[in-house]
Amino acid sequence: SFVNRHNFAAYMEMTMGLPLGMLFAGAVVRDKRLLYITGIALMGVALIMSGSRGGLVAFLAQVIFLIMLTTGAKSRKRLVMRIGFATLLIAAVIVGSIFIGGESSLTRIADTATSNDITTDRGHIWSVTTSVIAKTMPFGAGFGALGVAYTPYDSYSGLERVEQAHNDYLQVAADAGLVGIVIGLFFLLWLFRSGLAGANADNHYRRGVAIGAMAGCFAVLVHSIFDFVLHTTAISLLFILLMTLIVACRQRYDDDFELPEWQKRRAYAPKSSLASISDARRGNASLK
Known about the structure:
The chain is an all-alpha fold. The protein has helices at residues 5-24, 33-49, 53-70, 76-101, 104-113, 122-136, 146-150, 168-199, 204-223, 233-249, 261-268, 271-287.
């Protein structure tokens, strides 16, 4: 179980990304789509009931990302269908949350936003962290040293205990300075290039897996703007697993080039069926 609601929401949004991407990419056969939609709806309800604002923003960003990634620039009909499906899915998640948790399941997010807890004041934490970044450039304060480097610039005089920046991008800049920023940018560039390569795979199923894995990674990267969810081992391992799927999907395999449906039926048909087809064709030829 997760003690922190934001960590649970991050795990849900990454887990949800894979079936969502496969649905949007059309990689799920028709008789299994309802099963996928049910699973996605349940995970979406769990995400909303966690009360994580960052998780909700990441989920919405994930859906928008999938619409943009799976819709061609000239395919207006497909765009309308994707938007309609996404709207129905989000509506189903909201209705399911109200049905299971009551109206309070949605008001929890607003209650969190108006909380007087000083440790949730991300604006102040980010402001102090930027001061740390400015003072410790170009090498940063050191890995894991933000809690110590933070205190001299804290205008609250130690009323709050801050060990993370509640923003992984600011955290990297504060810990590793310019070196960390450059490495982080190269990592993001590699991740999205690999994801786009996998999304263009010739195999339809593997293309859907790549799109779903990329959507899960994108969601947690958006969530990392508001929290430090990747510091949790379970979430980091799932993130690495999604990256592994992306790398695997961009490779070339023997089944990359799919046969048309009629050739598949012929290739996998029993020999007796093929023989009867050949006999029938010969009979038709003799009649002519």
